[in-house]
Structures are given as C-alpha cells and as structure tokens.
C-alpha cells in the first residue's frame, strides 16, 4: 500500500494544480471573445461621464480604451448603480470594475484589485494669490469650507492643526466661490473634484502640495480571475512605462497622476 500511496500522492498534487490552472481561464475567455466588459458609474466626472452627444468621456474611459487597443479587445461599457456594482460583477454582468474605485480593506475582502493606477484623496485648495497657506499643516486657526456630508470631514479630523472655523456648503463649487469672495481661507475637498473645478477657472485657485488623506484607485476583478487581473495589470504597467498613461492623464488633469513618484 505504501509504495502505491507514494505513486498516487504526486499524481493527486498534479491533478490539483491542473484543476486550479484550468479553473482560471478568465483571460483566455476574454481573449477568445475579443471583448472586455467594464462596469461603471457613468456620472463621475472627470473619470467617466456623458456629454450632450450621449457618448462617454473621461480619464478612465480613455485609459481603459488604451488598454483594450493594446490587447486587441473591444471595450463594452456597462453603466451600473454604484451601490450594487460588486454584486453585479459576481453576477457576471461585466468582467471588471474600472471607475475610480477606491481600494479599501473592506473591498479587498470581496474583489481582486489591480495595483493602484492613480492616487486620489482629500486636498486643500486656496485662491492663487494666497501665500500664507503653503501646506495643509498651515490650516490651524483658519476659516475652512467643506461640502456637507462629504469625506472632507475625515480629512479635517486628520489635520495636525485644526481650523478655527469650519463652514459647510451644499456643494464644493459654492464653497470655492465663497473662498474666491474672501469669506474662506481654504476649501478641503476631493482631489479630482478640485481639479475639475480649477480646470474651468484657470488661474483662480490652486491645490496645496500633499494629500491630507489618500485614496488609491484600482481596477476590481472577481477573486478567481487572477489571469485576467494579471494581464490587465501587465498592460497598465506597459502604458505607464511608455508614457501613454501620462499623456492621457495630462489631457484630463494637466499633469501626470499615474506615476507613483508623484503621489
């Protein structure tokens, strides 16, 4: 019996390895179909949004399309309610989620993320003429505005020096206008939202260096789809190395936000 068991054990191990490999044919299926279906919230500028013509625009749209082009894949966008985006992924309504999705410990328990392809987070914005506030550490005692119900409150709590007064606004643009009028020293808000507002009024506002809190963005895949995740990651890395990712980033943000050296 023992010699027989010695012969069977290696065969059993090989069978398990073969089964595991065969189980993860996620990339091969996508390659064979020639299509990558991506779930997204199509009202999240500047990452993904629609213009009057009904077409999708945004950084994530351009970046994913560049990955698809390099892999010879057609990208099919599947608009989805964000609240149910992960269940929809596991219901096979699409193959991945690519839409400024923040990598969190809670989400990592449910999905397989790519490496961060962009760093988002809360930042401090001031008017261009402000020279007294150079970093978020200078906000102590200042009058600071935030959007009601936003994650900016957590950023305020993370500040080493607390503001002297905190004003809450219905929207970030309203807070920025109040700052422009001199009623605020600073506005704390999401980095990408800040950049979108600034792009529409160049020369009026500026973002202070350093994130107050960070929120890395990643592409989310089903836990079992390692080969698909790895192939997409490999292609993202190639686009970063070639400078194509930087080109797309500069189109939307006027600088390269895909380079980890800038985070």
What key attributes describe this structure?
disordered N terminus; 263 residues; alpha/beta; 10 helices; elongated; 10-stranded mixed sheet; D-Maltodextrin-Binding Protein, domain 2; two-stranded antiparallel ribbon
Number of strands: 12
Order of helices and strands: HHEEEHEHEHEEEHEHEHEEHH
Mean pLDDT: 91
Q: Please state the second-level CATH architecture of the largest domain.
A: 3-Layer(aba) Sandwich
Task: Give the overall silhouette.
Answer: elongated
Distance between the termini: 61 Å
Stretches where pLDDT is under 50 for at least 5 consecutive residues are 1-21
Q: Please state the CA-atom Rg, rounded to the nearest Å.
A: 23 Å
Number of helices: 10
CATH class of the largest domain: Alpha Beta
Q: How many discrete structural domains?
A: 2
Percent of residues in helices comes to: 40-55%
Q: What structural class do you assign from the helix and strand content?
A: alpha/beta
What is the CATH topology classification name of the largest domain? D-Maltodextrin-Binding Protein, domain 2
- CATH H-level superfamily title of the largest domain: Periplasmic binding protein-like II
Oligomer: single chain
* β-sheet strand percentage: 15-25%
Largest sheet features: 10 strands, mixed
Signal peptide: 1-22
InterPro entries: Iontro_rcpt_C, SBP_3_CS, Solute-binding_3/MltF_N
Domain Ionotropic glutamate receptor C-terminal: 35-255
Domain Solute-binding protein family 3/N-terminal: 35-256
């Amino acid at each position: 019996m023992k010699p027989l068991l010695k012969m069977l054990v290696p065969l059993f191990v090989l069978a398990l390895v073969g089964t595991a490999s065969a189980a993860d044919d996620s990339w091969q299926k996508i390659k064979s179909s020639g299509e990558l279906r991506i779930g997204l919230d199509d009202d999240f500028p500047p990452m993904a949004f629609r213009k009057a013509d009904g077409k999708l625009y945004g950084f994530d749209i351009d970046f994913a399309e560049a990955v698809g082009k390099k892999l010879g894949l057609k990208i099919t966008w599947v608009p989805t309610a964000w609240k149910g985006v992960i269940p929809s992924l596991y219901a096979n309504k699409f193959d991945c989620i690519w839409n400024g999705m923040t990598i969190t410990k809670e989400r990592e328990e449910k999905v397989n993320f790519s490496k961060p392809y962009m760093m988002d987070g809360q930042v401090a914005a001031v008017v261009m003429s402000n020279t007294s506030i150079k970093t978020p550490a200078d906000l102590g005692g200042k009058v600071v505005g935030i959007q009601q119900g936003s994650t900016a409150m957590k950023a305020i709590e993370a500040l080493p020096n607390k503001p002297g007064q905190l004003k809450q606004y219905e929207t970030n643009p309203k807070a920025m206008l109040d700052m422009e009028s001199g009623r605020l020293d600073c506005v704390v808000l999401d980095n990408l939202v800040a950049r979108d507002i600034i792009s529409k009024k160049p020369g009026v506002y500026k973002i202070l260096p350093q994130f107050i809190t960070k929120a890395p963005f990643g592409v989310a895949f089903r836990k079992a789809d390692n080969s698909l995740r790895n192939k997409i990651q490999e292609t993202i890395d190639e686009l970063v190395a070639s400078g194509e990712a930087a080109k797309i980033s500069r189109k939307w943000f006027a600088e390269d936000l895909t380079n980890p050296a800038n985070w």
